[in-house]
Amino acid sequence: MYKINVVFVFILIIALSSCGSDKRTVIIDNPTPKGINIKFKNGYTTSVEAWGQEKIIFSNDSATVYIADTLVGDFILGKQDEYILNPTRQYYYIEEVAYGSDLRDAQKNIPEGLRKEDSTAFKMNFVMVDTLLYIGYVKKVNDLLIPKKWDYGISDQLPEQLELPEFTAYATKIKIFREYDFIRFHDLINLNKNLGKDEEKEEEAVEIMQETK
Predict the structure, then answer these.
(1) In order of start, what are the domains of the chain with their CATH numbers?
(2) H-helix segments, 7-69
(3) Kind of pairing, strands 45-48 and 125-129?
């Protein structure tokens, strides 16, 4: 369960305070087995337990964050309403999953202009997940601040199937995973046991990558 706090930033310049920005939600995520103590430059402090999260409402556009007294970095909030704050700089995996038609067919039907502008229209990638290899429509990130561009958050479960509207062949959904959850969701340990042993599958993967370029 989230803890919810409001971070108030006192602006001394009256001219600036009269044109304040919208409030945005920042979820501090701790995907590690140890609790962390978080401190912001404005004096606000909190602790996030192992594997825990804390939701904070920000009224300012930027902040400086520390773990204990060690500087992690600065971040600037953009136009999105929600973000994940990643103070431990762990890797996350944002994957596009298709329901109905194969995702390769779904991607071909995305208008070219949208494909360039919308970052949720992923290309197929080879990504290393710890020491494991995965091939899919996935983006690997470890930014300090990750803007929300997904349908299902870290704690949400992807549905096994979707009810598609009439005359609709497919739908895609975006899910963000912590690294451990991504490995477990795709059973990557067992999947990688046979990697390189099946030449036909390896050749097929190369062909798919060439098709998506």
Answers:
(1) 4-85 (2.60.40), 92-212 (no CATH)
(2) 14-17
(3) unpaired
